[in-house]
Amino acid sequence: MTGELGFIVNDLMPALMRGLWMSIRLIVPSAVLGFFLGVLAGSCRVYGVRALRWPADLYVALFRGFPLLVQLYIWYFGLPRIGIYLSPYVASVVGFSLCSGAYHSEYIRGALLSIKKGQLQAAQAVGMTRLQTILYVILPQAVRRALPGCGNEIIYLIKYSSLAYMVTCIELTGEGKIIASATFKYTEVFAVVGVIYLALVSVASWALGKIEDRLTIPGFEYHRA
Amino acid sequence: MTTATDSAPVLTVEGIRKSFGNKEILGGVDLSIRRGEIKVLIGPSGAGKSTLLQSINFLVMPDAGRICLEGRPVDPSDRKGLCLYRQQVGMIFQEFNLFDHLTALGNVEIGLVRVKKMKRSQARERAMAELERVGLGVHAHKYPAELSGGQKQRVSIARALALDPKVMLLDEPTSALDPELIGEVHAVIRDLGAAGMTMIMATHQIGFARALADEIIFMENGVVIEQGPPDKILDDADCERTREFCTKITELGGR
């Protein structure tokens, strides 16, 4: 095979597949860690005592306020100044998780606030502690309500994972950039890269929909248009 | 009429006061109830019946006053003690407040598993027995959204009963129900009374109150105006205001 097709099949795809694998290795742990951070921070912000609430508020303010790229630069290029060396991969996962968690916490917070006071009262009335009430009554309901928003955040994450190549973690976009710079075939390379991201996002939407379906119970349905 | 015995009170409430902002909701309420007794709170909306019941369970923190269960004062600042106390005082809400994400069975089970630390299989057996007691065995696996109001309230009664409460507090248990669903809930409460459950209930269902109560307590503006046997309070009250209220509500609800 020669020509454009040959270039795509022989040169481009192997590199992009390598990049895709790295992207997946970035996205999956960041999505999971980010979600749990978000649940933790959101719960602290709504139900925490003051000593938990203000650090959580500060966390969200900082990590939603700093541009993600700046955060990544700090983790990768900044921390060595104080003797902490993170690999490009670890720096990226840390950066993505912390940033994503800040956004998740907003979705979780909104969902927590939507839970009716009667649910809390009923839990107290059967003798549950505050922590038990949050874990066994409030969060199972709030997470269901937050799911569409959190899914949206994960879709964002898939795309902002492309920033990892700025801290030398060569993922899908990074591999594409290297080949494009070498061949000047920017259009071809990034068209293919774009399609791969689109495929990733489509698979993720489908999987998130499946999770929503699995967690759906009467009274917590989503009516999809 | 009364089943009052010489035994010491199960629950005593002394001088409970509560204000929200400048508005005094409870202006010093005393109450005591013996094992097996049923006391019914009546009075206009805003009289403080709900706040009183919620204060007894510390869902509303009283500003002043004391509550004793079997002679022991409850200290609401002791969180562990408070959780233990609440297990012994069953609470039924006007709006049912079932846990929306759990089935009927899950609702009854959760207190046993999480609070009483019972084994899951044992808890399931007990929860099932309580659901059957309120006639809902066949609906055990339905979610609150799939149950009628009357069924939801019966599940909430089963949920409270599973913890073996010493007293049940019922806050207008049938006020949020369609008229034709009230009967099934009344039947369950009547059975509880017959089984010797100690209960304090707020209600506007005057006929039901008359049939069930050992004593009726008329409240208005956060204080107890008058209390006594149902026939006395409903038909022949000493206090003018009590007579006025009871006449009106009896005309509405029938004897």
Automatic annotation (TrEMBL), chain A:
Belongs to the binding-protein-dependent transport system permease family. HisMQ subfamily. It holds the Pfam family BPD_transp_1. Residues 20-208 form the ABC transmembrane type-1 domain. One of its GO terms (molecular function) is transmembrane transporter activity. The chain crosses the membrane at residues 20-44, 56-76, 82-103, 189-208. Keywords: Amino-acid transport, Cell membrane, Membrane, Transmembrane, Transmembrane helix, Transport. The lineage of its organism: Bacteria, Pseudomonadati, Thermodesulfobacteriota, Syntrophobacteria, Syntrophobacterales. It is a multi-pass membrane protein. Gene3D superfamilies: MetI-like. InterPro entries: AA_ABC_transptr_permease_3TM, ArtM/GltK/GlnP/TcyL/YhdX-like, MetI-like, MetI-like_sf. GO terms for biological process: amino acid transport. The keyword Secreted does not apply. GO terms for cellular component: ATP-binding cassette (ABC) transporter complex. It comes from Desulfacinum infernum DSM 9756. This is Amino acid ABC transporter membrane protein 2, PAAT family. Its main location: membrane. It is found in: Cell inner membrane; Cell membrane. It comes from the Bacteria. PANTHER family: L-CYSTINE TRANSPORT SYSTEM PERMEASE PROTEIN TCYL, MEMBRANE COMPONENT OF AMINO ACID ABC TRANSPORTER.
UniProtKB/TrEMBL annotation, chain B:
Residues 11-246 form the ABC transporter domain. GO terms for molecular function: ABC-type amino acid transporter activity; ATP binding; ATP hydrolysis activity. It holds the Pfam family ABC_tran. It comes from the Bacteria. PROSITE patterns: ABC_TRANSPORTER_1, ABC_TRANSPORTER_2. Belongs to the ABC transporter superfamily. This is Amino acid ABC transporter ATP-binding protein, PAAT family. It comes from Desulfacinum infernum DSM 9756.
